[in-house]
């Protein structure tokens, strides 16, 4: 790394570093990839805009959905897990991707356990398993009751630390370095003080997580601002399925809550809790054959519709009655602590809950091996659209996806390097610090929450787009917040474009003005790219002429 020499007038890079692979993100996908890449002999540099242990992974409560060969329900199988995933995905999953990822799940979990992950034990020396919404069997393994993500993150951070993996904490990636032919060969970053730097590498892996901060209330941490999707789009990659944002049906409700809200894991319903409205009536009775364990899009939609009539005079939350769940405090210690913090005792009181933005089913289009359409750019985890989730994610499939595709992406990078398919980073010129479009974050979040959350229509989506246009200004990204706001702005614009064009309701995408599912015209994904002026446009062949 060279010493800092900063030019405040041009804001050009003041330091550089080099590696074979730069990994952006330290969640399950990023750390799994970095560890595997180091095993394969690559020089790896990991970048995270917070501390190494921060991110979405550690907040995951439910567990890892996996069918282990030696411990599963009678009659359960990977094939049944595939079927459940395809059903939840509402016709937009890639069956090959689903089959490949889920089939590799047992090996991925075995590796994680060998690295020290401790999952909760059940009877006869087997792992404890629970059932969550959309699953036809008890196949979700968990750790610490409802602290699975924290255990997965602890294990991976310990493994990375033990291997002395180099990690740049509190650095945020801004844009990709590109060669004259368009290959990615590194990234520009801002350090904690806002000083620009350049990381040169023939391969960059996006593993930056989701985009929950598009909305006022979310289960995601403050750093989930869609940075990877924005960077990938600006690098020339294509995104897909961005209109499908899964809202978790049950986050803990507190009046006027903003930002990350405590999650009430779906496993609580798996143990027998039921949703009731303000008048005490069941929310899910007669809505779906699986009742309270219906897929998340179904439950979130049912809650939203029920709230429209304000039963019992309550129009902003419902209740999760878990008073019949034995040993709640021990089984769900994280949820119990969050409830007690607001004066609710789950053993005696129904838990106030409401839907909130939870998981992005879409992202940068990538194979199960992480390869995107841009040489040198890879994506894994929530930032990627592999085809596993389709229009709605099946509960607890995300940690498994990160483990499987993170490893596969590292192996793809090593193979591409060995085959001479990646660019020489010296061919990429460090760009001048360009200008980005940034909307005012509060206005963006309010507009997206009001018009582009669970219930959408053409008029509201147009209003949200107008709000973004009016609150957006151009400027150089001088701080981490600037980069985040630019990412949120670009991703919001792309999501609105896709949501406005999809004139049907499917999975997480619910259009009040087009309530039916249309498999004739819309059983396909929409692709999004940036046009020469940097605006997101629909790139799939069917829509190109219509947009033009």
Automatic annotation (TrEMBL):
Its EC number is 1.4.3.16. SUPFAM superfamilies: FAD/NAD(P)-binding domain, Succinate dehydrogenase/fumarate reductase flavoprotein C-terminal domain, Succinate dehydrogenase/fumarate reductase flavoprotein, catalytic domain. The keyword Iron does not apply. Catalyzes the oxidation of L-aspartate to iminoaspartate, the first step in the de novo biosynthesis of NAD(+). PANTHER family: L-ASPARTATE OXIDASE, L-ASPARTATE OXIDASE, CHLOROPLASTIC. It comes from Amycolatopsis methanolica 239. This is L-aspartate oxidase. Pathway: Cofactor biosynthesis; NAD(+) biosynthesis; iminoaspartate from L-aspartate (oxidase route): step 1/1.
């Amino acid at each position: 790394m060279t010493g800092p020499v900063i030019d405040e007038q041009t804001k050009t890079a003041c330091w550089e570093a080099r590696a074979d692979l730069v990994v952006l993100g330290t969640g399950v996908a990023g750390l799994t990839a970095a560890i595997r890449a180091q095993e394969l002999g690559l020089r790896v540099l990991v970048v995270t805009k917070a501390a190494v242990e921060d991110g979405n992974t550690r907040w995951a409560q439910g567990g890892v959905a996996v069918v282990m060969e030696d411990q599963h329900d009678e009659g359960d199988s990977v094939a049944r897990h595939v079927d459940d995933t395809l059903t939840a995905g509402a016709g937009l999953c890639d069956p090959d991707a689903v089959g490949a990822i889920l089939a590799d799940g047992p090996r991925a979990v075995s590796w994680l356990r060998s690295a020290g992950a401790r999952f909760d034990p059940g009877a006869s020396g087997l792992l404890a398993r629970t059932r969550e919404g959309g699953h036809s069997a008890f196949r979700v393994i968990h750790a610490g009751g409802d602290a699975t993500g924290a255990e997965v993150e602890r294990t991976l951070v310990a493994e990375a630390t033990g291997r002395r993996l180099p990690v740049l904490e509190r650095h945020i990636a801004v844009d990709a370095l590109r060669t004259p032919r368009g290959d990615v060969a590194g990234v520009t970053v801002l350090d904690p003080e806002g000083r620009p730097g350049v990381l040169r590498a023939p391969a960059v892996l996006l593993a930056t997580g989701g985009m929950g901060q598009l909305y006022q209330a979310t289960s995601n941490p403050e750093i989930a601002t869609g940075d990877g999707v924005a960077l990938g789009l600006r690098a020339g990659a294509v995104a897909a399925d961005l209109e499908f944002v899964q809202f978790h049906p049950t986050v803990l409700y507190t009046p006027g809550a903003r930002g990350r809200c405590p999650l009430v894991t779906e496993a609580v319903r798996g143990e027998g809790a039921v949703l009731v409205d303000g008048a005490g009536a069941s929310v899910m009775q007669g809505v779906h054959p699986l009742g309270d364990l219906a897929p998340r899009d179904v439950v979130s939609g049912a809650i939203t519709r029920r709230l429209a009539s304000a039963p019992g005079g309550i129009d902003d939350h419902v209740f999760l009655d878990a008073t019949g769940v034995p040993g709640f405090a021990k089984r769900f210690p994280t949820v119990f602590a969050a409830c007690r913090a607001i004066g609710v005792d789950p053993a005696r009181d129904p838990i106030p809950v409401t839907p909130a933005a939870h998981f992005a089913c879409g992202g940068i289009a990538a194979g199960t091996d992480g390869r995107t359409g841009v040489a040198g750019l890879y994506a894994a985890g929530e930032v990627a659209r592999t085809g596993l989730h389709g229009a709605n994610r099946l509960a607890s499939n995300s940690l498994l996806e990160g483990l499987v595709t993170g490893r596969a992406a590292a192996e793809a990078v090593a193979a591409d390097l060995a085959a001479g398919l990646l660019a020489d980073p010296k061919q990429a010129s460090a760009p001048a610090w360009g200008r980005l479009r940034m909307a005012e974050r509060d206005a963006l979040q309010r507009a997206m929450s009001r018009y582009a959350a669970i219930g959408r229509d053409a008029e509201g989506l147009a209003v949200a787009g107008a709000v973004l246009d009016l609150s957006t200004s151009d400027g150089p990204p001088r701080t981490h917040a600037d980069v985040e706001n630019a990412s949120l702005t670009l991703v919001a614009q792309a999501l609105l474009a896709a949501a406005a064009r999809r004139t049907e309701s499917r999975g997480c995408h619910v259009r009040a003005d087009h309530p039916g599912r249309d498999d004739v015209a819309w059983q396909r994904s929409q692709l999004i790219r940036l046009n020469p002026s940097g605006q997101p446009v629909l790139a799939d062949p069917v829509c190109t002429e219509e947009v033009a």
